[in-house]
Specification:
Length: about 110
């Protein structure tokens, strides 16, 4: 997209909210080799997955309200993957980094 003058929405774009077509304060993004977009949805305390060309995403981590349980996040701000495909999430207000095997959640 060298020289591009306009962007293309690949995730969200339907206003602020908690629906599967919305986000509330996206903070971080990682794109895998297949073009799948993973987004930290800070305000909704969740991580979302948007396959290439999808019109809506799916919640792969969190989405269970803000909190400190192992299935909850509290103001996540970053994400990364290791070579085995495990997801690491920076869970800011819980002062922790959690890892998730999302292959079993696919």
């Amino acid at each position: 997209m060298e020289g591009a003058k306009q962007g293309i929405v690949v995730a969200g774009g339907q206003g602020r909210g908690n629906g599967l077509t919305q986000m509330f304060g996206p903070e971080g993004v990682v794109v895998d080799q297949l073009g799948t977009v993973y987004v930290v949805d800070y305000g909704n305390a969740r991580i979302m997955r948007w396959p290439k060309g999808a019109t809506h995403g799916s919640i792969i981590v969190g989405g269970n309200g803000e909190g400190g349980q192992s299935n909850q996040l509290n103001r996540p701000v970053g994400l990364s993957f290791d070579r085995q495909g495990n997801l690491y999430v920076v869970d800011n207000n819980n002062h922790r980094v959690q890892t998730f095997n999302i292959a079993s959640n696919a």
